[in-house]
Amino acid sequence: MHGVLARRLASGVVASIGVLVASCGPGAPSAFETADQAAHAEHAPMEHATTDLEQLPAPDDRSGALDSGLREAEPTSASVLIVDPEGPLSSIGEAVRAAAPGSRILVKPGVYTEPTIVVDRPVTIQGEGYPTIDGEGERQLFEVTSDDVRITGLELRNVGVSYVQDRAAIRVERAARCEIDHNRIHGGFFAIYLAGATDCRVTDNRIVGTGSGETDSGNGIHAWNSSHIVVESNQIRGHRDGIYFEFVKDSRVSRNVAEDNIRYGLHFMFSDRCRYRSNSFRRNGAGVAVMYTSDIEMLGNRFENNQGSAAFGLLLKDIRDSRIVDNEFHENSVGLYAEGFDRTVVEGNDFVGNGRAIRLLSNSADTRFVGNNFEGNTFDVTTNSRRVRSSFEGNHWDGYGGYDLDGDGVGDVPHRPVRLFALIAERSPVTTVLLRSFFVTLLDWTERVVPSLTPDNLVDERPAMRRLERSAT
């Protein structure tokens, strides 16, 4: 009698597993494959094919054997595991522990509240219909310690503020080749945190912070001591810093939008040989800050509406041997602030409608400003000394009052971009209330007659008569 019951139980388990595998088998595209194709559509929410739940055994017909087997069996081969709040496998953490290296874990729609999920083996965790993983304000959601992990298509919420831990929705520790893409993260404290990571990609995530100040908010995408990182096509708002790099090398940041962050849209230090291209940084508390770094390229980015007494479109401090090319600086309190800014080319940029387009401190040396457009700025260039060791050539200045008799498009007389009143305002900012007064008009006229009052070596010898077109980036 016991032998008959055992054979029937074994037969039922085998049939259940057969139905589960058939629902994800090679006969038709799997839910993961369908979702993966949709996930790479530009700026579109990921669409997922659905597996017919009716193909799975009814809840009443399931014994505990299948669930127990998934938890206790040693993984032997790659497979597809389906996590469903109403299914035999209802925990993402349990699925990870049951998965063989290379497995795919397909997470069905629902809300999952479980302890921090430690991903210690190479797997793909794929959400279908953006299932929600909720930290209930108490814990980190994912900790990735294995190479070759992908997390995609999830909604991650409510990590909770901690003043003793850098909690994150997804934290990667000393891992390589991770992929974090097409997730929605809300209230993540730190949303995505990479520490000691290499060759990882963070793409197409939508990240919203909920902190009210710098102390109760982490960074949107945070990377420390990492290399060859790609951060691309993410949208980040409401965090302390949108993107933060420290000791990051040979990495690329492109096509991201960082807006309305509490401090900086982008902040990086000691991060050499990185490239920043076609990003938009707008309405951040203090703009963008770049410090103590060499050999960077900032190409085709847009810095706009970063306003305040200590706000900059782009702050550059102790930067060397770099290129700032084809960027747009629109309506910032200071478009570009340069301190200790050496051996760098600033070329083909548009400075439009800023308070101070460029604030160039005297400790910057051998930097060239070439072929830029200056239009509608209160001050085109300000400095803190009459001795400047950088040069301007071939820029277009809307305040240029010279002429072009030979018609070659280049002004026949030099242009001095530093106004005498700009030097006065640099030393006594309160005097800016006189900006539109007759007194300032008289000062400008005096400077044209007696140009020796402003820095004598800060001169554009070949000012462009017409606006210069920016090259395609």
Q: Structural class of the secondary elements?
A: alpha/beta
Strand order of the largest sheet: 1-2-5-8-11-14-17-20-23-26-29-32-35-38
What name is given to the CATH topology of the domain at 134-453? Answer: Pectate Lyase C-like
* Estimated radius of gyration: 29 Å
Distance between the termini: 78 Å
CATH class of the domain at 134-453: Mainly Beta
**What is the overall shape?**
elongated
What is the typical, i.e. mean, pLDDT?
Answer: 83
Question: pLDDT under 50 segments (min length 5)?
Answer: 1-74
Strand count, sense and closure of the main sheet? 14 strands, parallel
**Would you report the number of β strands?**
39
Strand residues, percent: 25-35%
Estimated helix fraction:
10-25%
Second-tier CATH architecture of the domain at 134-453: 3 Solenoid
Separate helix tally: 6
User: CATH superfamily assignment of the domain at 134-453?
Assistant: Single-stranded right-handed beta-helix, Pectin lyase-like
Folded structure, characterized:
- With 473 residues, this protein is α/β, with parallel strands linked by helices.
- It has a domain at 134-453: Single-stranded right-handed beta-helix, Pectin lyase-like (Pectate Lyase C-like, 3 Solenoid).
- 14% of the residues lie in helices and 34% in strands.
- The chain is built from six helices and 39 strands.
- The strands form three sheets. It has a 14-stranded parallel beta sheet with strand order 1-2-5-8-11-14-17-20-23-26-29-32-35-38, sandwiched between helices.
- α4 (92-98) links the parallel β1 (80-83) and β2.
